[in-house]
Amino acid sequence: MMEGVPTVSRNAPMPATTEDASRVDAVRKWFHEAGRELPWRDGGTSPWGVLVSEIMLQQTPVVRVEPVWHAWMERWPTPAALAASTQADAIRAWGRLGYPRRAKRLWECAVALVERHDGEVPSTLEELRTLPGIGDYTAAAVVSFAFRGRATVLDTNVRRVIGRAWRGEALPAAHQTVAERALAASLVPQDDEGAADWAAASMELGALVCTARVARCDECPLASSCAWLAAGRPGLAEAPRRTQPWHGTDRQVRGRIMAVLRAASSPVNVTGHATLEDVEPGQLDRCLEGLVEDGLVTVVSADRGTYAL
DNA sequence: AACGCGGGGGC
DNA sequence: GCCCCAGCGTT
């Protein structure tokens, strides 16, 4: 062994310091005082209810999800109930939440739960991760929020909180780094309940206080120890924006086509539809083709140009 | 690693 | 009008 070379692998889990632990505790304490009461946080919510909420919350704010989640759970209280319905009905019930492929995958997920898991939501990261629409974040969130298990829940909120308070960075990079993940993992309390509590608390802090562009540092339980605040909150104005064009894009046209098809109970002649008159025929065809390719839309009659969900 | 994918509310 | 939001799957 060479002198001065660390004997611990760089990939070994880094233990949290006692200061880390006290900061984690501060965020948890704040959460119990200031956290929102959201329906899917109700202790009586089933793992299925938590899973549905997590899929809906992927890139969609809480206020928009809430009413749709209630209606969804009323109609399909179990995976078996949704699996017995059609993909088209799932997409209709999804309404205007956006990214309708999530509705498709949620329906496929329900089918997979019935076929592979006896209609139950599995409780391990590995099993969850194989289900349609469930990636690293959502699998960890279900373990944590539905089963109160220990997982590293690292969403955009938690990344921002850790990035600022621990690393002194204004906004997280586009992609997670190994170091970032290791730091996040090191902060997770050892006990299951503590871990689940920290996951919810750190996300809530990012959602309510440590927000992207207008951080409310005066309300933050980490204000006295935050690396970013101590440095004078640098880099916020220079941080790259993620704004995407909208008006006239394929994205918008796809959404408009889906809105027409959701509202219809029988096949629609999309290319001759009054609502879509202003769309260039070439773009309309391209978007239609893409939606069919994505499995969101079916061709009823190519001759007559009719389509349905 | 980069890209495509909705929609709406806050600022 | 800009900007962000409890990401995922594919290339």
TrEMBL record:
Look up the record and name the cofactor or cofactors this protein needs. [4Fe-4S] cluster
Catalyses which reaction(s): Hydrolyzes free adenine bases from 7,8-dihydro-8-oxoguanine:adenine mismatched double-stranded DNA, leaving an apurinic site
**Tagged with keyword Transferase:** no
> Which residue positions does the secretion signal occupy?
none
Q: Give the superkingdom in one word.
A: Bacteria
GO MF entries: 4 iron, 4 sulfur cluster binding; 8-oxo-7,8-dihydroguanine DNA N-glycosylase activity; adenine/guanine mispair binding; metal ion binding; oxidized purine DNA binding; purine-specific mismatch base pair DNA N-glycosylase activity
Pinpoint the HhH-GPD domain residues.
Answer: 56-208
Q: What is its EC number?
A: 3.2.2.31
Q: What is one Pfam family matched by this protein?
A: HhH-GPD
Gene3D superfamilies, per the entry: Helix-hairpin-Helix base-excision DNA repair enzymes (C-terminal), Hypothetical protein, domain 2
Q: Which InterPro entries match?
A: DNA_glycosylase, Endonuclease-III-like_CS2, Endonuclease3_FeS-loop_motif, HhH-GPD_domain, HhH_base_excis_C, HhH_motif, MIG/MutY
Alphabetically sorted, this entry's keywords are: 4Fe-4S, DNA damage, DNA repair, Glycosidase, Hydrolase, Iron, Iron-sulfur, Metal-binding
What are its GO biological-process terms?
A: base-excision repair; mismatch repair
UniProt record similarity statement: Belongs to the Nth/MutY family.
UniProt xrefs under PANTHER family: ADENINE DNA GLYCOSYLASE
Q: Spell out the protein name for this chain.
A: Adenine DNA glycosylase
- State the species of origin: Demequina mangrovi
Q: What is the lineage of its organism?
A: Bacteria, Bacillati, Actinomycetota, Actinomycetes, Micrococcales
